[in-house]
Amino acid sequence: MTSTPRIVEVRQNVLKRNDEVARALRSEFQQAGVFVVSLVSSPGAGKTAFLEKTLTLLKQQFRPAALVGDLATDNDAARLRRSEAPVKQITTGTLCHLEAAMIQNALEGWALRDLDFLFIENVGNLVCPSSYDLGENLRLVLLSVTEGEDKPLKYPTIFNSADVAVLTKIDLADAVEFDWTAAQNNIQAARPGMRMIPVSSKTGEGMQEWLQFLSEVRGAIRPDESSFPA
Ligand SMILES: Nc1nc2c(ncn2[C@@H]2O[C@H](COP(=O)(O)OP(=O)(O)OP(=O)(O)O)[C@@H](O)[C@H]2O)c(=O)[nH]1
Ligand SMILES: [Mg+2]
Hints:
Blueprint: H1 6-32, E1 35-40, H2 47-58, E2 64-70, H3 75-80, E3 87-91, H4 100-106, E4 117-121, E5 138-144, H5 151-154, H6 156-160, E6 164-168, H7 180-190, E7 195-198, H8 207-219
Parallel strand pairs: 1-4, 1-5, 2-3, 2-4, 5-6, 6-7
The structure holds guanosine-5'-triphosphate (GTP) and magnesium ion.
Guanosine-5'-triphosphate binds at residues 41, 43-49, 76, 124, 168-169, 171-172, 200-202.
């Protein structure tokens, strides 16, 4: 008989099982030489727009693919397929995050060795996805200029569990009087030293800095290919 409340026990088991699958995935990705990037953010922060642009640019020189999680529709997959990269939708039903086992299932039938990059767009949510390792090499948290500079303080775990903060929709920054200093301070309060990359998927501003960064971090794993098309 344990004194741990039942609900806590179930949650711990779910997370433990997820970590095991994520560990297996990470080792598969490494063996296949595919670099995996996941994206988390609030709904509508611009994940799909940013990913479509990224896939389109990468496609000129690399073999990228994407998995995209959504509660109910496959709209995002349809948008991402415009890049002509392989894309699969994962429909989660009532679940507000992706789990490692869903990634494993979705990858069935794909030859990982034929890919250089795999992107995983998580369900739009600033709470649930933070606890679930998906076996990724790099986790991006997107913060759009339109959602308020205080989000890193209100949802610190999602910022703390990510590697890089991508500031999106910067073409709208002036219109919403975005406070760059406050945003920067709040991100650094949630995750000291966190790298921030400002982008606009609409104008393309910041995309080269993002691709350059991606090249550098991937180069640390596969030093053979490290330049991106302009
Ligand atoms: N002005 C501007 N609008 C953008 C930009 N990026 C995305 N949007 C718009 O913001 C809205 C939401 O963008 P999505 O890419 O669907 O956001 P998302 O994070 O994928 O949304 P969910 O998957 O529903 O969580 C759309 O109307 C986009 O056109 C940008 O850089 N600038
Ligand atoms: Mg989306």
